[in-house]
What we know:
Elements: E1 12-18, E2 31-39, E3 45-49, E4 52-58, E5 67-72, E6 82-88, H1 93-103, H2 116-125, H3 132-140, H4 146-151, H5 160-167, H6 175-198, E7 201-204, E8 212-224, E9 227-238, E10 242-251, E11 254-261, H7 264-272, H8 274-283, E12 287-294, H9 299-303, E13 310-314
Parallel strand pairs: 7-13, 11-12
Antiparallel strand pairs: 1-4, 1-6, 2-3, 2-5, 3-4, 5-6, 8-9, 8-13, 9-10, 10-11
Amino acid sequence: MLNFKLPxxxxxxxxxxxxxxxxxxxKAGENIKAQVVDILPSGGVVIRLKGQLVEVKSEIPLQKDxxxxxxxxxxSDQNNVxxxxxxxxxxxxxxxxxTILQNFQLKPSNLDFKSVQILNLINEQLVxxxxxxxxxxxxxxxxxxxxxxxxxNLDYKNDLKFKLLKLLSDENINPAEKEKVKQLIKDIQQYQxxxxxxDSIWTFIPFxxxxxxxxxxxxKKLRKNNKEYHLIIIPLTLKSIGNLQINILNFEKNLNISFxxxxxxxxxxxxxxxxxxxxxxxxxSFNANFxxxxxxxxLENIAKNKFTNIFNIKx
Length: 315
């Protein structure tokens, strides 16, 4: 059973590094909308604020054309203003999510490092057995909570993002390997951005299984008519059968379990052996109903819907 509290991804802050030539009035406590206009090679971000272009610096990489809701924080220096990111208001949220999901480099084929030091680091993060204790540590040390740990004075020495950042200053690692490390750091930052965009927690866990090509684990807590429901969505790709998705909805120990697959024969096989699963659930005092649906649900459609208390794990 999973029962642990995740660190929060705290509010993101933007620092203004270059003000426009014309005067720009910014009042502390004011909430304003802004649009991301450009991402600079230096890592800076150009936003349109009150009709003027302003260069800011952000820890989490923002995406072009994203709409932001910002709060101006108190400052005694007009040239050193800090903005708090309240939320991301993107009209093209679905397209942004789709682009990010397609561009992730955290894949087995991209973890082919030659450096023994980097390989050891990756092996340390590998999860060979997803028991609750290991899963908890893997999530907390996946990199998306790194900055939050620093702000809260929590231990970050085992955090993946911290370890990757340390490798960038290691003189024994060649430039080509460092570029791969930079890409992994960028992917973690993109997960942080997705977390902020969808009001959820997205992260990556290097879980090893020979049959498994890809899997997402999505948990959502839902409320309807003053009742609390728990939904788990598991889309995965297996080498032998292709795409499979399992949806589990729980309400007061009543389970609705749906299997979606493009492989009709595999669905029939699950259906023939479902009694074994049902008996084990009954031993745990769960009542279960099952459905078997030929087809697949697009993860991007799930991701673009905002829910409370959701976390997504890619393994």
